Amino acid sequence: MNPLFTQKTCASILSLFMGFSCAFSAQAMDLRRACDPAEDTLTIGGVGDLLIHKYIQNAAQKKKGHYSYLWKNVKSHIQGVDIMYANLETPLAAGVARDGTLHPDPGVFWDEREYIYSGYPAFNTPPELAKNLKAGGFDIVSTANNHAADRGLIGIDKTIDSLESAGLQFTGSRRKGDRNSFATIVNKKGWKVAFIACTYGVNGKSGTAIRGQILQCYSQKSLLLSEIRNARKVADVVVVTPHWGTENVHRPQSSQVSLAQEIVDAGADLVIGTHAHVVQPIQKFKSSDGREVPVVFGTGNFVSSQPGINKLGLMVIAGFSRRGNQVWANGLRHLPLYMTRSYLSVDFLDQVKPENQRKLWSVVSNVVGNDFGLMNSREPIKTNPLCGN
User: Fold this and answer.
1) Which end of the chain is more exposed for a tag (fewer CB within 10 A), N or C?
2) Among the listed residues 302, 205, 295, 209, the one whose alpha carbon sits nearest the alpha carbon of residue 259
3) Which parts of the chain have pLDDT scores under 70?
4) How is 148-206 classified by DSSP, letter by letter?
């Protein structure tokens, strides 16, 4: 095994990785089959919450590319993986006002009353965001989160309209009256990857109608596990993206840990969690049938106007290998992200120097850990770097 970073290399990156000593070397999740020979491989990336607050919308409506500027500094990695995922924590309900009435779509326009499109606490974002995400390299988004019904049941349907129009796949929601699976299959490089999203709940909404359209992680746990088992039968890889946990708390709840184990036992190969708005740990779980499964409890925010520690997020990149009918995880890496430049772009933390940089790196080290694949943004994307060339 050849370490990616030597003592000499470490000295040159200390100014980037604040808080790490020169004992730092390339790390990856310790997976027993990481270096097994494979016929082909696949990479799956994920980032956190897309929260389009008023400040961001005001800037986007004045720019030619609208929302595309937000992730331009990390676009190479978004497009560098085979499949990229994000949590879409806003409806894209064209023309739906706060009171649920339908109006002509004003386009990428945000009036001072925030009548059609609005930020917190009741989000609604112009459908142009879906087109920008698709053009930027995103393949699939979650539509199961606590803001999914911020424009009511009609807003869920209208969001689906916007995503389908943009050609951006989604998981976790379905139209009123639809009884098809909540799972979505993404086909890439001859692989079938099933994505299944769920949420702990939906703001201000409950009852049979909302559960029929938005998959709930806990109150519909039997359905969630059934969806995973069914996806396991047809997909090469199953990715579950739960929206769970306590906001602004780095430690996962015991309910998250127990649900993660049930999700893994049901057949998930990768778990990427969101909602806390801060980063949470990455752990390796072992399934009842012996598989090793990376579980990311929380990727934090991707895009938002939230301050302080909420500006820190993660991009995670998982790798999978295939030989014959066998598929296994070969590694998982993470890159810390930072919402910077007056909330006008996301960048890699090792590319910027915020005032509280040492504190941010300390959070990454203490919460996520150094042994779960910390990745330098300048290195090539490789999920199992200790396996040699």
Assistant:
1) C
2) 295
3) 1-28, 370-372, 388-389
4) TTTTHHHHHHHHHHHHHHHT-EEESB--TT--S-S-EEEEETTEEEEEEEEES-BTTB-
Task: Give the count of beta carbons closer than 10 Å to the beta carbon of residue 357.
Answer: 18
DSSP class of 380: P
CB 321 within 8 A of CB 330: yes
Other Cβ atoms within 10 Å of 101 Cβ, number:
11
Cα distance between the two ends of the chain: 9
Sign of CA dihedral 360, 365, 366, 372: positive
Quote the pLDDT of residue 17.
Answer: 44
How big is the chain by its Cα radius of gyration, in Å? 20
Burial class (CB in 10 A: 0-12, 13-18, 19+), 317: buried
Architecture of domain 7-387: 4-Layer Sandwich (3.60)
For 359, the enclosing helix (H) or strand (E) is: helix 357-363
Instruction: Please report, to the nearest 10 degrees, the dihedral formed by the alpha carbons of residues 237, 243, 247, 253 taken in order.
Output: -70
pLDDT of residue 356: 82
Distance in angstroms (rounded) separating the CA atoms of residues 279 and 298: 5
